[in-house]
Amino acid sequence: MWLMALRLAVLSLSRNKLRAGLTVLGILIGVAAVVAMTALGEGARGTIEGQLGALGVNLLWVWPGSNTSSGARGEVGSAAALNEDDAQAIARELGTIQATAPILGASAQVVVGSRNVATRAVGSTTDYVRVRSWGLQRGRYFTEADVRTAAKVCLLGETVRQALFGRADPVGETVRIGRVPCTVIGLLAVKGQGSFGQDYDDTVLMPITTLRARIRRASGRDVDQIMVSARDAAVMQRAQQQVIALMRQRHRIGAGEENDFIVRNLQDIQSTFEKTRSTLSTLLLSIAFIALLVGGIGVMNIMLVSVTERTREIGIRLAVGAQARDILAQFLVEAVVLSGVGGVTGLALGVGAGYGLGKAMDWAVRFSPTAAVVALGTSSGIGVVFGYFPARRAAQLDPITALRHE
Amino acid sequence: MSDGPVIAMTAIEKSYVTGEVLFHALRGVDLTIHHGEFVAIGGPSGSGKSTLMNLLGCLDRPSKGRYLLAGHDVSDLDADARAFARNRLIGFVFQGFNLLARTSALENVELPLAYRGTPSRERRRRAAQALARVGLGDKLNNTPAQLSGGQQQRVAIARALVTEPRILLADEPTGNLDTATTEEVLELLQNLHREQGLTIIMVTHEADVAACAHRAVTVRDGKIVRDDKLPSPRQAGALREVG
User: What is the ipTM, given to two decimal places?
Assistant: First the structure.
């Protein structure tokens, strides 16, 4: 019965190629959208997990908090500044902490000869490389002495090196950062792309004092943020609590008052990002499912038209002995074939689109077999669900009425 | 079982509700038809002969009365059981041919066997045989559009014969045909009846056509008003030269 229904379905659809094609298109677009969206969503998650993981799980960030004193919440960083003493105190007083790195940043134009590149200058202490466990390709780090004297030295990230020196060795060369000539003393190891799409290697590292005094032309000991590395992942929770307690004490925050700083660990950042990502992919996926639903309604519509058009055929089949379930099977299978074809081509198109989009936008894509199975299952399911009503209508036709139908 | 009548209808009534009016299409019909008979059912339009035909063909079921078809009580079968009965016991020939368009003669004839689950090789063999019986052995792969009206009706007859039915039910089989083709189809029916002992029931309102049968039943106002044996049926084909 099913084999015969399948043969009839293929025959009937091939007689109305344009109509079948247009109906298939509805399902195809829906399935393609689901597959592509899932692939992009999964790809984004993979990237975040991979990169945050590679960064290390034992990192904490301390940022200045928002200022709520005037009633309205200010932006992050509007509250009392962090300074180098905070960083030192955390490193010195807390046993769970391995090292801290106070960080100042500045946008900087780096020039050498006729080449120049806009990048992010990072100023920190000698502990920065320990906190970030960032190796060297060449040369050396700056020293305590360099920090003390605000020496005009810097280390280049790989991206900056390529922009300015190509494949040549930059160590020993002099580059101009803003208006400050600096000697390149080292080339940082390649770190790759960051969690938020940024390029870690697009950076220039220098002593915090140099950046503050010579690039920012500021004084004092304020910093933008403090990076803290705990001894190991197991003490993260405790380390974070201790850092908060210590910072409250240092900033003289009374009981019941809000922190004027923010402490985040990787998991927090990851979960925040994951939440955003999942909201976004849920949204995209629901749009894709709506497309699939609309496609399903298209199938139902065309099947109803088909049943009406073929009422006489149904009458003939009933007259020569087809049973209701034979007719039901015939039209149900036709609907399933219609949406199944849409599912398969949609899957192919979705993989293509996801891959192409990923390539064009430089997004990571990850195709999961589950998504493919779900997409195919859903499309066939749509065939069954939206094909059932028209098929049942066909099966319940009265042979006499159907035969008289013109 | 073959000793008993092929058709035994007793006190058959059929009424429809059209709008709010109850319409009695058949008001107590008794009809017995034996194996090997060639019966014409006639009557004016609205007489109830189409209703009778639908009941005879198990396309519908009576409101009252008992209908034994080849010994089986089919008075009260549900839709699927009637479909089964049609498939096993009855061959239909309709006025409008009712062939599947864009489908070859062979496949049209195979159709009833397909719903029986006959294997496709066997199906093809029997369909080709049936088409040969109606003289269309060389048109197996033609679609209805490529066949004349007479040829289409022969395909329909082949489709009715392929299941080796107990009765052949023909509903105005010549209604859509010109005189020459009408004679051709009637001749075929007469041959099938004479040579193969096929039981044929033919609904027609044309006296010429009815005259080819061996028994003429007349329906009027939902009742059988005449039931005559025709000792010397008109030989179809005689008119062909004239027409």
Answer: 0.93
Taking CB atoms and an 8 Å limit, are A316 and B98 in contact across chains?
A: yes
**Chain A CB contacts of B100 below 8 Å:** 313, 316
Q: How do residues A163-201 score in pLDDT, each as one tens digit? A: 999 889 999 999 999 889 999 999 998 877 665 666 788
Listed by start position, the domains of chain A span: 2-51+271-404, 81-250
> Between the CA atoms of B228, B230, B235 and B236, what dihedral angle is there, to the nearest 10 degrees?
10
Quick one: DSSP state of residue A212? I
A23-49 per-residue burial string, b: 16 or more CB within 10 A, e: under 16: bbebbbbbbbbbbbbbbbbbbbbebbe
A321 → closest Cβ in B54, B86, B98: B86
Q: What contacts A43, CB < 8 A, 6 or more positions away?
A: A358, A363, A364, A365, A366
Distance CA A200, CA A190 (A): 8
Using the Cβ of A294 and the Cβ atoms of chain B, whether some distance falls under 8 Å is answered with no
Q: CB distance from A15 to chain B under 8 Å?
A: yes
Give the predicted TM-score (pTM) of the model.
0.70
Count other C-beta atoms under 10 Å from residue A302's C-beta: 23
* Nearest C-alpha neighbor of B70 from the set B51, B93, B89: B89
Q: A-B interface: how many C-beta pairs under 8 angstroms?
A: 56
Whether residue B159 and residue A323 make contact (CB cut-off 8 A), yes or no, is: no
**Structural domains of chain B in order of their starting residue, each with its CATH number:** 7-242 (3.40.50.300)
* Tokens describing residue A225: 């943020």
**Tens-digit pLDDT profile for residues A290-312:** 888 888 898 999 999 999 999 99
